[in-house]
Write a structure and sequence with these properties.
The complex is a heterotetramer, with 2 copies of chain A (77 residues) and 2 copies of chain B (148 residues). With 77 residues, chain A is α+β, with helices and mostly antiparallel strands. Chain A has a single domain, classed as Beta-grasp domain (Ubiquitin-like (UB roll), Roll). Chain A contains 2 helices and 5 strands, in the order βαβαβββ. A 5-stranded mixed β-sheet of chain A has the order 2-1-5-3-4. Chain A is globular. Chain A starts with a strand and ends in a 6-residue tail after the last strand. The mean pLDDT of chain B is 96. Chain B has one domain: Molybdopterin biosynthesis MoaE subunit (Aldehyde Oxidoreductase, domain 3, Alpha-Beta Complex), CATH 3.90.1170.40. Chain B is an alpha+beta fold. Classes of the chains: A alpha+beta (77), B alpha+beta (148). Chains in contact: A-B, B-C, C-D. Chains C and D meet through strand 4, helix 2, helix 3 and strand 8 of C and loops of D. Strand 2 of chain B pairs antiparallel with strand 2 of chain C.
Chain lengths: 77, 148, 148, 77
């Protein structure tokens, strides 16, 4: 019963880890994943969140086995 | 359709020659091909840039590029499309991204190519970190707008 | 800027590779390059086309291509532009026209490339005569519009 | 004292000659060049005219030494 969490680019450096894994028990939204892994109460609206590689908002539901990712605005191309 | 993300340098023109050779079904069928090649400049925001590191979200970056190309193929009449994106260490003048579309008509080719680039720039999970002349590094914070 | 009209086949990708090699001032300076390649299809208006003859008005065709490219360079921020146009006998899948622009920014590259193509299609004195499958010939009467 | 006249593409085939040369005397406009070289009173508005390689209208003035060209809508590219 776990949720895999990933951080990329400047956010990865700020958070100080590329990934994390948390217990899915009692975690219901993306925001709660953020709070539990980063220890900050709110999610800066500039930060993008994805669940299973699809963009979602902070109130999106998460469940056991999900891959949740947080990252700054994209700058490829 | 081919989408490829690689750390290997993109030798764009020979690569396009090979791709067309390997796809003889395009010959005689398409009237228009539009290519976008994005290259690394040796300057950005008034500073000399010596090198760049391109990070991506493996899995999601491929998924989004394929999804973006598919949306373009659903919207316009395209015979084929090719997207190549470089990641890892990149030097000035290196090709970062290549988008190619083949269509019967030029209007579709232009519109679809530009759509793919704009969607790629706003949705595909890639991030650039620049190394400046003094060795300092900085993350590029946002992409420039795609309109004149 | 280079404008060239020739009866020789255009080997577009190797030609672009050589052009960029011969213009090292572009490397590291341009962030975006857009290429349009117009190819001969083996069909038009529901008929098989076996060959094409491309006539032009020598002198005026060069003058207009140069003038069109200059207008693009006045309007957008371009580092360089290249226009190649084939004339004479052309076979299906051959490249008829190539327009390339190099710019610091992609929005300028797309806009300028499309402007050059549309102006070329409506102003430059070139005319296509098609040879159909049964050996009959016909003049193409007008170009297709450049909008989707 | 002459004006060089050129015809291109389908118009060249219809007129039956790629070029002509006429005396500049008494010829003042592009339309008169057309009338004198082709023998038709009016110039179809679809036909394009150029004087010294610049597009002009049928009432454009011509003078000695000019190169006048007539051709159908362009179809290159």
């Amino acid at each position: 019963m776990s949720i895999e969490v990933k951080f990329f680019a400047s956010l990865r450096e700020r958070v100080g880890k590329p990934s994390d894994s948390i217990d899915a028990n009692g975690v219901t939204t993306v925001l709660e994943v953020w709070q539990q892994t980063v220890g900050e109460p709110s999610l800066d609206p500039h930060i993008l969140a994805a669940v299973n590689m699809e963009y979602v908002s902070a109130d999106h539901a998460v469940c056991d086995g999900d891959e949740v990712a947080f990252f700054p605005p994209v700058t490829g191309g | 359709m081919l989408v490829e993300i690689s750390e290997q340098p993109i030798d764009v023109w020979p690569r396009l020659a090979s791709y067309e050779d390997e796809h003889p079904e395009l010959a005689g069928q398409h009237g228009a091909s539009v290519v976008f090649a994005g290259r690394m400049r040796d300057f950005n925001e008034d500073e000399t840039v010596r090198q760049m590191q391109l990070e991506h979200y493996p899995g999601m970056s491929e998924k989004f590029l394929e999804d973006i190309v598919q949306r373009a193929m659903d919207e316009w009449s395209l015979m084929d499309a090719l997207v190549l994106h470089r990641v890892g260490k990149i030097n000035p003048s290196d090709t970062i991204v290549v988008v190619v579309v083949w269509s019967a008509h030029r209007a579709h080719a232009y519109a679809a190519n530009q759509f793919i680039m704009e969607a790629l720039k706003s949705e595909a999970p890639f991030w650039k970190k620049e190394t400046l002349d003094d060795g300092q590094t900085r993350w590029v914070e946002k992409n420039t707008p795609g309109t004149v």
